[in-house]
Each structure stands twice: as C-alpha cells, then as structure tokens.
Amino acid sequence: MEANTFSRWLDDVSSADSGAVGGKSANLGELATLDVPVLPGFTTTATAYEYYIEQTGIQEAIDSELAGLDVEDVADLQQRGERIRSLISDAEMPAELASAMVDRYDALAAQLEIDDPEVAVRSSATAEDLPDASFAGQQETFLNVAGTTELLESLKYCFASLFTDRAIVYRETNDFDHLDVKLACTVQKMGRADLASSGVLFTLDPDTGFENVVVIEAAYGFGEPVVQGVVDPDRYVVFKPTNGIVEKELGGKTQRMVRRNGGTKLESVPDEDQDEFALSDDRIRELATYATRIEDHFDTPQDIEWLVDGDLDELFVVQARPETVHGAAEGNVIRTYSMTESADEILDGIAIGNAVASGAVRVLQDHREMDRVEDGDILVTEMTDPDWVPVMKKASAIVTDRGGKTSHAAIVSRELGVPAIVRTGNATATLSNGDPVTVDCSTDIGRVYESELEYEVREEVVDDLPETDTEVKLILGDPARAFALANLPVDGVGLAREEFIVTSHVGYHPLELLERGEEERFVDALQTGIAKIGAAFYPDDVLFRLSDFKTDEYRNLEGGWKYEPEEDNPMIGWRGASRYYDEAFREAFRLECEALRRVREDVGLDNVTVMVPFCRTPEEGERVLELMAEYGLPPEEMDVYVMAELPSNIVLADRFSELFDGFSIGSNDLTQLTLGVDRNSEQLAPLFDEADDSVTRSISSLIETAHSHDRPVGICGDAPSTIPEYVEFLLEEDIDSISVSPDVAIETLLTVAEFEDRDS
Ligand code: PEP
Ligand code: MG
C-alpha cells in the first residue's frame, strides 16, 4: 500500500485536501504552504478511518444501532451512542494500518530527534458543510500522547468520537448521512509553551476595527489562561506596512500554566520574568509577518493562536480562523443634537462642541480626587490643566467656572468629543454632587438644566466625500483615540500636541526622569504615543509638535517643581523654542528628538514630521534646527514647520520662510498676543476675538509672504473649529490646509468642497 494512503505529513496537505484529511488538518497544511510554521506532525486520512471500520467489520453493528434512532429519546440515544463508541474503540487496529501509523510516528520522532515524542491527537472531520463552530468540541482531543501503544489507543478513541451524542443528533437533525462523514486525526508534536510563551493575536485592532495593525497578546506558559482572562498578558501592536512595533505594554503575567502529572496547573511567575516582555522584538515582528501573510492569503481578518515551543525554541501558529467580532471605527457621520424636553436652567456659559449629555454632577476641587468620578458623570470644576485629562476622559460632559474658548478645558473637550461649558462663573458653587443634570451645547450658549432631559441625536452618514485641494486635517493629541478616528477621510493630522502624550502617558517631568536615570521611560512613552497617531493616519502626514508646556503646567508634572521657575506670566514665559536650547532644558529636548527619531527610523513612520512652537525669533529657530540635527533629526531629511503664533512670526515671515519648510497658524496664541488679551482671562474674554481685523490681516499677510517664498501655510488653532465663517475666510486667503477637531471634520470637509466648487 502506498505510504500516503493512511497518513500524510501536515506540510504535504492543503485546503484542497479537506475531503481527504478533514478540515483541521487541511487548514494546518494550508498554513504550511504559506511558509507559516506549524508544529511538526502528520494527519491520518479519511481512507484510514474507512479501512478501520471496514476491516474491523463493525459497520453493520453501527448501522443497526442507528436504525430507528429517536433523538428525542435522550436515554436511548445515550445508550446507543455509548455502544457505537465502544464498538469503535474496542476493536483491534488492523495490522497494516497500525504499522503505517507506527512508521509515521517513528519518522516524526526521528525528525524531531526526540524519543517517543509527546504528541496531541485531534479530530479532523471531513464534513465540510458542517459549520465549524457547531462541530467544535464535539470530538475528542488527546494531549501528551507518548509512544506507539498510546498513539494507537488515542487514534481509536478519536475515531469513536465521531459518534458523540451531540454529533449524532446534529447529523440526524440536519439530515446528514452518518456514513458521509469521516474522521481524520491530526497528530502534532505537543507545543511546549509551558517552557516558553503563547497567546493570541488579531490582524486588526479588535477595539476599533483599525486594519493597519496586528495586535498580539502574550504570556508565559500555555495559552488557556490568557484566553480565559485569568492571566493579564503583554500586549504588542505592530504596524503592518512597515512591520514596526508601535506599542509594547507589559502585562501582569503573575501566573503561568505549566504541566503537572500529565495534567496542568497554574504556578507563580518569578518577579524578574514578570518584568520582562514574554516575546523579544524579533519574535514579535516574526509573528506579525506570519499573521499578515495568513490574512492576505485568506483575504479576511484573522484570529490566530500561537506559541513558542521551548523544546525547539521556535514560534508556531497553532490555529487561524476568520475574525468576526470587532468594534466599528468612527465613520463619516455628522451628529446633530437637539433638545426635545425642557426644564429650569441652572447655569450658562460658553458652549464647546455641539453635543448634549446628561448624568450625575461630580464637583472636584483637585484632579487627585479622580476616583470619585464614575464613567458618564458630569465633571464640574473650577478650571482644568493637563493633569486633568484622565478625569476628563471619564466624564460625559465638563462644566467649569473659568476659562475661555481656547482654554485647556475647551481644547481637550473638543478633542475628546465631549460637550463642555466653560466660564459659567459659579458652577462649582451652584451644582451639587449627585444631582442629575443635562448639559446642552446644541446652541452657541451652553446651558445646564435640572434633571436628565430627553434629547434627539440625528445621524447623517456622508458617503462619497469629495477630494479637496485645500487639505482638511485633524487636531489630535490623544493617542488612545487615534485608531478609532483613522477612518475619517481627512488628510492626516495638522497638530499632535506632545503635552497630551506626556501628561497621560508619562506623568513625570522629563528632567526628573533624567535625574533618576529613567530617561527610557520618557522616550518610550513618547515614542509609543507619537507612533500610534502616525500609524493611524499613515501615509498621510502627521505634524507632531514639540513640547509647549508652560512653566505652571510643567510644575504640575511629578518632580516638576524642582526644575521650573514660578513665573508671573507663564503664557509669555519660558515656553516653546526658548527652552530647547537652554542649558537648563536641553537634555530633556534631546529625549523628545530621540523619541521622534525612533518613530521615523525604527518604526518606519516617516509620515511623522515636526513643528516648532512659540519660536520668537529666526535666531531661535536656527538654534533649534541645529540642535535637532545634533540629536538625530537633520532638517534636510524631513519637513520642519514653525508655528505662526507670535506677531514676530508674521512680521518676519520672510526670514522664517528661509529656515522652515512651512507655517502652521496658532490662532489661539496669535490672537492673545496680537490683541494683548490673556487667553485665560475671564474679564477679557469678550475681547478675545480671532476674527478681529488685526488677527485676520496678520493671517492674510503671512499667507501672502509665505507663498511668495514657496512655503505652505496651514492653521491649527481652534478658530476654524469654532467659528464656521473662519473656514470661508481662510479659503479666500488661499490657505493650504485647515486643521480642526474631529467632531467638525466632516462638516469642514463639506464646506471646503462647496467653496472650491463655487470657486472653480
Ligand atoms: C495656538 O496657539 O493656536 C495653538 C494651536 O497652540 P496652543 O493652543 O497649544 O497654544
Ligand atoms: Mg499656541
């Protein structure tokens, strides 16, 4: 008899052989055809099963047990099932079949160079038209099978498992002929993940559906506790187009599942191993390569189980199946809110965002009281600063006593897409903890109403968004939202504020970490944050802005008081470019540059370019550019923009044009400094007007000068997100790109398209 009649090597079969070797073996073979490593092993064939049934002469007895079966009669079904399984497992393996199995096993042992290797024996049914899910778990799996005697026994039990009670009922009720289904067995070396690691992966981000990444979960030992959520695994995110590692998150990994007495047990992981990643960077990238290859081959996202075999010190894919459950990414939807119920108004102020939200009031004096805030509460506070971002993320709406349209609270709320009312004057005194309220920002004036009122949300899905000449980009600093926003049809990101990443992902002053010898912590967290935003919008440009904390904000970072002077006017103090070349800060600037260099070179995200904020003079610009070159970011290798946010940037636009590749207008600071109005001043708020002639003329002049020097101009201040006519003005002035907060991106795109249509 031909060697392949009863069994075949797994890497000798493919999807086309599922009739001959069953779905499971065929699928593993298919993976092997892609050069994806599968644990070495073989499969028995359907012919082997037929031969077994035929030669043992038990077919008739099986038939008579099945004749007249009534699946409703559970007791009878159980007895008949039991008898059929015994008929199969008690029979003697025909000699020719047995010797073929032994030969194959011995050949596997020789190949592995292990005596009596332990194998797993699994069922691989040939009934292709049975949905896999309903068949899963119906047949047996035998683990840690060693030696030929045990192997032959397991094969027989595997054959018998074609007649579990559930399988019988399934075939009866779905009108499948019992004889049409055959059982092959997949026999593979036991994956020794207990000596190494294992886990799962998805070929997209399961939370947002973002498709350009592979998300891997990894822990030590066998994978079961990871799947069950008992062990907190590491998490790695790999960017498919460059195979660069975007994020590595260390999991708890306090326990691992290992073998004991033929079974398994959970044991503690030594502390030093808990603090290490379960996979090396090379392994992570290798795994991501296989994942992408499998996904490309099957042309659909995959959910994959994998392990590292500690015996062989090699990575293996154990199973790949289509991924079905994932969150929907935010698409092209315009939401319009309107109130449908009324109640007494308690307070009003400046409305930020166009939404409505309701919930229980939570008044906080200090961001450290964050634990008191439940998801969905209405956060009420005097004012926010970067330390408040984690609390703000939990809130469904934000109400502050102070602050203006470009205050921290306003900027962050806009970016988070939660409604906020700023400058209410006395919200912290007027609103009481626990009170149900509604925050209405559906009109220009933000209003807080008593009780949770009904409101309507209209969603308009905009298909076929037009391409525009003037680019529309996002203002986005929160890496956590990047993947969810990746599907917005924008031309990248025009402002990614470093401050967002540092406050939410580092928390420490960079000089403090340098003093402690923990600079990697800073570089690593910053690199991850930038890379996530860069990956989300690749290959569109992401303009990352170097640090622009003010001294009062830096002081609030852990250890910050040691390094930051107390200034009377932090808004016009030691901020932006002036810090970078200062001896007292230069080392921290080096870390920023290093994070960016790694994103571009190590992760391969060369769509991330850079912007220098608050650059008072061209001489400052020169010094910063020189330092960047020294710290691994030579200006000739990438675009470096300067913010146009000081009157000096406008007046000397010709000279800044010689140094920088483009401008991005910071209308917030430009208005503050042109009109001499403190952005945060409550009294002067009515005078803070980005549409004032002095500001708009400055913008017009800048665009003209910059264009005459072939330099593009964008805008990343808040004016176009908050003043609809502003977009129109900028288009008339021939601006090159407009950055807006995510909630108004689609509307802005439509406005731009309409303008361009009219204009052409
Ligand atoms: C601006 O000044 O307009 C700007 C975008 O920068 P920031 O608001 O961060 O100062
Ligand atoms: Mg600014």
Main sheet makeup: 8 strands, parallel, barrel
Unreliable runs: 128-137
Instruction: Give the bound compounds.
Output: phosphoenolpyruvate, magnesium ion
Based on CA atoms alone, the radius of gyration comes out at: 32 Å
Query: How much strand content do the residues show?
Result: 15-25%
Would you tell me the structural class of the helices and strands? alpha/beta
Shape: elongated
Keywords: ATP-binding, Kinase, Magnesium, Metal-binding, Nucleotide-binding, Plasmid, Pyruvate, Transferase
Cofactor: Mg(2+)
EC number: 2.7.9.2
InterPro entries: ATP_grasp_subdomain_1, PEP-util_enz_mobile_dom, PEP_synth, PEP_util_AS, PEP_util_C, PEP_util_CS, Phosphohistidine_dom_sf, PPDK_AMP/ATP-bd
List the helices and strands and how they pair.
Layout: E1 7-9, H1 18-33, E2 41-44, H2 46-56, H3 59-66, H4 74-90, H5 95-112, E3 119-125, H6 132-135, E4 141-145, H7 148-160, H8 165-173, E5 183-189, E6 197-202, E7 213-220, H9 224-228, E8 234-239, E9 244-249, E10 255-260, E11 263-268, H10 271-274, H11 281-298, E12 302-309, E13 314-322, E14 333-339, E15 345-352, E16 356-363, E17 378-381, H12 389-394, E18 397-400, H13 408-416, E19 420-422, H14 427-430, E20 436-440, E21 445-450, E22 455-461, E23 471-475, H15 479-485, E24 493-497, H16 498-505, H17 510-515, H18 519-537, E25 542-545, H19 551-556, H20 577-580, H21 586-601, E26 608-612, H22 618-630, E27 640-644, H23 647-651, H24 653-659, E28 662-665, H25 667-675, H26 693-708, E29 713-715, H27 719-722, H28 724-732, E30 737-740, H29 745-759
Parallel strand pairs: 16-17, 17-18, 18-19, 23-24, 23-30, 24-25, 25-26, 26-27, 27-28, 28-29, 29-30
Antiparallel strand pairs: 1-2, 2-5, 3-4, 3-5, 6-7, 6-12, 7-8, 8-9, 10-11, 12-13, 14-22, 15-19, 15-21, 16-20, 20-21
Helix pairs in contact: 3-4, 4-7, 15-18, 16-18, 18-21, 28-29
Magnesium ion binds next to helix 25.
